[in-house]
C-alpha cells in the first residue's frame, strides 16, 4: 500500500480483511510414520466430520504447514527424519496459531513434557481409545476456535478505536479549533473597542495568550489522534514529538535509541508501532511510578526489534490485574496484525519491559 493511500483507508474494510486471513476450517494434520495408526486416526477424524490429512514424516509436515493452515496438528514425537519438537518450534516461530497434540508411548512421558515446554497443547499416550483421542482433539479445536473469536474481537477493538480517534480528531479540529479561532478574533476586535487602560489591556493580552496556547494544544491533540498525521510525519519524528510532550508532562526521563527519519514502507507499521508505544507509555504513567524509560528500535535478522523498559514497580503478570484493561490486548493485537508478537516481562518491584519482534524485510529512511 502506498503511503498516500493511507488517508483513504476504510478501517472497517481492513477489519474484514483481517477476519478473512485465516478462515476457520476444522482441519487436522496427522504426522506419524506408522501407516496403521495414521490411517486409523484419519478415518476416525473424517468420520467425525473433521478434514484430516496425513503425512509420514516431519519434513513433509513442515512443508505443508508453511503453505496451509491447520488449526490442529496431531503428531508422533519420534519421526524418521526430524524430531517432532522441530515441528513445534516451527509452529511457534510462525506465531503459534496451530494447536499441537502429541502422541507418545507411555515410556516416553519425559519427552511429552519437553514437548509441552515447546508449546504443545496436550499429549496422549499409546495405546489410546478412539473416544479419548476424539475428546482431546475436539477440545483442541475448540481452543483454536475460541482463540480466533477472541482475536477477531481484538481486531475489531483496534480498528474501531482507530476509527473513533479519527472522528474525535476531526471534531476537535473542526468544532473546538474553529470556536477558539472565533474567540481569538473577537478578543482582537474587543481590544480596540475597550478603554485602553493598563488593567484592561493586561487582562485582554493574558486571555489572548491563553487562547493561543489552547489552540496549539488542541491542534497537537487533534494531530496526535489522527493516524494520517503519524504516517505523514513518519514514525520516528511523530514518536520523538510524543516523547518530548510525555516527558514534560509526566516528569519521567525518557531516553531513546531510534534511527533518524525512520518511516516504514507499509504505513500500518508507523501507526501500529506508534500506538503500541503510546499505550506502553500511558501504562507507565498510570501504573508504574517509574522515573526512567528506555526505548530502543533496531533492525536485525529481517525483524524490527522494539523495546520499551521502565524502572517502575512492575506487576505480576499472572494476577487478575492483567485482565482489567484493554491496553495490553490491543498491543498484542496490533503486533499480530503486523505479523509479529509482543512479549511483556514484568516482576513486582523490578520494572516492566515490553518487547516486540516484527518481521520486516528492509528498513526505509
Ligand atoms: N509499565 C507497567 N508498570 C506497572 N504495571 C503495569 C504496567 N503496564 C501494565 N501494568 C498493569 O497491567 C494492567 C493491564 O494493563 P492494560 O493496559 O491492559 O490495562 P489498563 O491500563 O488498566 O486499562 P486501559 O489500557 O484499558 O485503559 C494494568 O492495570 C496494570 O496493573
Ligand atoms: Mg493501559
Description:
With 365 residues, the protein is α/β, with parallel strands linked by helices. It has three domains: 3-153, Rossmann fold, CATH 3.40.50.2300; 158-224; 233-359, Histidine kinase-like ATPase, C-terminal domain (Heat Shock Protein 90, 2-Layer Sandwich), CATH 3.30.565.10. 55% of the residues lie in helices and 17% in strands. It is built from eleven helices and ten strands. The protein has helices at residues 11-19, 35-48, 58-67, 84-93, 109-117, 130-193, 198-225, 227-233, 235-250, 267-288, 327-337; strands at 27-31, 51-55, 72-76, 99-105, 122-126, 253-257, 292-300, 303-310, 341-346, 352-359. A five-stranded parallel beta sheet has the order 2-1-3-4-5, with helices on both faces. It has a five-stranded mixed beta sheet with strand order 6-7-8-10-9, with helices on one face. Strand 9 and strand 10 form a beta hairpin. Helix 6 (130-193) runs antiparallel to helix 7 (198-225), helix 6 crosses helix 11 (327-337) and helix 8 (227-233) packs across helix 9 (235-250). The chain is elongated and about 100 Å long. The model is unreliable at 1-21 (pLDDT under 50). Residues 283-284, 286-288, 310, 312-315, 321-322, 324-328, 352 line the site of adenosine-5'-triphosphate. Magnesium ion binds at residues 279, 282-283, 325, 327.
Mean pLDDT: 85
Instruction: Give the % helix.
Output: 40-55%
Number of domains: 3
Largest sheet, strands/sense/barrel: 5 strands, parallel
The small molecules bound here are:
adenosine-5'-triphosphate, magnesium ion
Strand arrangement in the largest pleated sheet: 2-1-3-4-5
- Please work out how many helical segments DSSP would assign: 11
Amino acid at each position: 500500500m502506498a503511503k498516500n493511500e493511507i488517508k483513504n483507508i476504510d478501517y472497517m474494510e481492513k477489519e474484514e480483511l483481517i477476519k478473512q486471513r485465516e478462515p476457520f476450517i476444522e482441519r487436522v494434520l496427522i504426522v506419524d510414520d506408522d501407516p496403521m495408526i495414521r490411517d486409523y486416526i484419519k478415518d476416525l477424524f473424517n468420520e467425525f466430520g473433521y478434514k484430516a490429512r496425513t503425512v509420514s514424516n516431519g519434513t513433509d509436515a513442515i512443508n505443508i504447514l508453511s503453505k496451509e493452515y491447520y488449526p490442529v496438528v496431531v503428531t508422533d514425537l519420534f519421526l524418521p527424519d526430524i524430531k517432532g519438537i522441530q515441528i513445534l518450534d516451527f509452529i511457534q516461530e510462525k506465531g503459534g496459531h496451530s494447536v499441537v497434540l502429541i502422541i507418545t508411548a507411555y515410556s516416553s512421558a519425559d519427552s511429552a513434557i519437553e514437548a509441552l515446554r515447546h508449546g504443545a497443547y496436550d499429549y496422549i499416550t499409546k495405546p489410546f481409545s478412539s473416544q479419548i483421542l476424539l475428546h482431546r482433539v475436539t477440545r483442541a479445536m475448540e481452543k483454536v476456535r475460541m482463540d480466533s473469536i477472541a482475536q477477531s474481537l481484538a481486531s475489531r477493538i483496534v480498528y474501531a478505536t482507530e476509527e473513533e480517534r479519527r472522528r474525535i480528531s476531526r471534531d476537535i479540529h473542526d468544532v473546538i479549533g474553529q470556536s477558539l479561532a472565533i474567540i481569538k478574533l473577537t478578543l482582537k476586535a474587543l481590544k480596540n473597542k475597550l478603554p485602553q487602560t493598563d488593567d484592561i489591556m493586561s487582562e485582554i493580552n493574558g486571555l489572548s495568550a491563553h487562547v493561543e496556547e489552547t489552540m496549539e494544544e488542541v491542534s497537537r491533540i487533534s494531530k496526535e489522534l489522527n493516524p494520517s498525521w503519524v504516517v505523514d510525519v513518519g514514525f520516528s519524528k511523530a514518536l520523538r514529538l510524543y516523547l518530548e510532550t510525555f516527558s514534560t508532562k509526566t516528569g519521567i526521563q525518557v531516553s531513546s535509541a531510534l534511527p533518524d527519519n525512520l518511516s516504514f514502507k507499509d504505513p500500518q507499521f508507523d501507526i501500529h508501532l506508534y500506538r503500541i508505544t503510546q499505550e506502553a507509555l500511558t501504562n507507565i504513567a498510570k501504573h508504574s511510578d517509574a522515573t526512567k524509560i528506555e526505548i530502543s528500535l533496531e533492525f536485525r535478522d529481517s525483524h524490527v526489534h522494539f523495546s520499551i523498559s521502565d524502572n517502575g514497580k512492575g506487576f505480576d503478570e499472572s494476577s487478575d490485574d492483567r485482565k482489567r484493561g484493554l491496553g495490553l490486548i490491543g498491543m498484542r493485537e496490533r503486533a499480530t496484525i503486523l505479523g509479529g508478537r509482543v512479549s511483556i516481562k514484568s516482576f513486582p518491584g523490578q520494572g516492566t519491559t515490553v518487547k516486540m519482534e516484527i518481521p520486516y524485510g528492509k528498513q526505509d529512511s
